[in-house]
Amino acid sequence: MPSVIALDAMGSDRAPKPEVEGAILAARQYGVRVLLVGSETTIKMELDRHGAARRLPIEIVHASEVITMDDKVEAIRAKRDSSMRVGLRLAREGQASGFVTAGNTGAAMATAKVVLGAVPGVDRPALVAVFPTAPGTPAILLDVGANVDCKPQNLEQFAVMGDVYFRAMFGKRPGTTEPRVGLLSIGEEETKGNELTREAFQLLKQLPLNFVGNVEGRDLYNGNVDVIVADGFVGNVALKISEGVANLVRTALKESLKATITRQVGALLSRSAFTDFKKRLDHTEYGGAPLLGVKGVCIITHGSSNANAMKNAVRVAAEFAERGVNQLIENGLAALRPAVGVGTL
């Protein structure tokens, strides 16, 4: 039976256009049933622009309110019929396998915690982002923005959730027996970093994980580590810098290849390689950031997301649900309590 994913059709900067187009691509390519949540009139107008959508498993679920990018987190209490809250309710009640939004990140996280609740053993959910690496197998970084201020035990939980998520979604990297977990810091030595990372280091090295110690920013991409743990402030800065560098590389390469006739001919001959290169650096291929640690599937993607990003966010939500990641996280945390002390996790 195909997965059913609720997609907030009113969340992105250009809603509902990318949401509708992404839903069509996901339904067509992955056979996923998509519930577009939001203003029925607005969504229907956009769907009517795509005649082929009538033959696809796409439905509209009406929601009369929208949480905007300018709304404060408190808006979730006032807007009880927002597309975000209605979509998460569908996930909680089992009418959808998961929920995807490109809306207000803070509101999405707060609403998910209220509507879905937290997985037992998780104090704070974390957002996880996927990064390309030189060897080709992705690496993941968490947290990338859910928690600006963290305690050492939060990073401990992030490490466990990241290890479980990597195993479930990517398996193991060739040549390794289990995911390599690192703590993002300013140096590899155990004594490097601030008070938070030094205390977290002591907790992480006691976990029955493949903890490789401190790692630095360059390790996001070199393939030396699979799961990178950070507080949400540092993780979000690393994520945004990485996206900016990727855009710079694509733009600079494109301009350089247009500089002379010889380069243009060379670019034409190497079009396939350049297409692969662009796809590898394209964050829209990775499908947004799952919110780990809530009782349900919630994927949060950029407000500027295009149809490809929406399509892949729906795909990730379906895969997350099908592989039972939340239950694996709960089992992983429960199994670790005797090993690290009941009061730690």
TrEMBL record:
Major enzyme class: transferase
An annotated Gene Ontology molecular function: phosphate:acyl-[acyl carrier protein] acyltransferase activity
Entry's transmembrane regions: none
EC id: 2.3.1.274
Subcellular localization, as worded in the UniProt entry: Cytoplasm
SUPFAM superfamilies: Isocitrate/Isopropylmalate dehydrogenase-like (SSF53659)
Record's protein name: Phosphate acyltransferase
Organism annotation: Candidatus Sulfotelmatobacter kueseliae
Gene: plsX
